[in-house]
Design a protein that fits this description.
Elements: H1 3-10, E1 13-17, H2 22-38, E2 43-46, H3 52-65, E3 70-73, H4 77-86, E4 90-100, H5 105-110, E5 115-119, H6 126-131, E6 134-137, H7 145-156, E7 171-173, E8 182-184
Parallel strand pairs: 1-2, 1-5, 2-3, 4-5, 4-6
Antiparallel strand pairs: 7-8
Helix pairs in contact: 2-3, 2-7
The protein binds S-adenosylmethionine (SAM).
Residues 94-97, 119-121, 124, 137-139, 141-145, 148 line the site of S-adenosylmethionine.
Amino acid sequence: MAYTHVAKAYGKVYVLRIGHRPERDKRITTHVGLVARAFGANGFILADICDEHVMDSIRGVLERWGGEMFLSCGEPGKRVVREWKKSGGEVIHLTMYGVHVDDIIEVIRASKKPKLIVVGAEKVPPYYYEEADYNVAIGNQPHSEVAALAVFLDRLYMGKELRLEFPNAKIKIIPSLRGKKVVSLEDN
Ligand code: SAM
């Protein structure tokens, strides 16, 4: 796939989820996709497999809560990385073995290259460690791909992503100290 065209159409920050196991990862992989959307990434790529349950859940949130994202599944993860780099992009692999995020985030932010952020599941093949431009740790303790992605994107965007308004939303929350206020935007 020509990722330069994709990056031009949608924006420059994509998440590649590798190692998805349909029998046990549906919920966590869906959460990776939802965090990608809510924290300002422009695309979500599920490597090696198409889990329609996961993709449908993410599509459903985009449909109701808005936003435009490149979505893809089934392409081999290693090929995505190879094509991404060939298209002039850079690869950031989130791993507890990497360099502390605070020691590298300014370099990553300053680079104008399209960014592919790779998050794993159980065991990540050495290929990703070797091919990544940056192996980045969200602290050097084991935790979760969802937490790692959220903190990385928050550092990348310096917290501004939490104020994002999403185009084409059908519903929207009116923030309130008590209760739930949700308005429909469809009759406007
Ligand atoms: N041994 C794995 C590792 O290399 O980080 C931990 C597996 S963890 C269940 C699944 C994914 O969460 C990892 O592939 C990584 O993307 C992410 N992750 C977990 N802890 C992390 C940390 N401290 N920093 C960055 N990413 C982390």
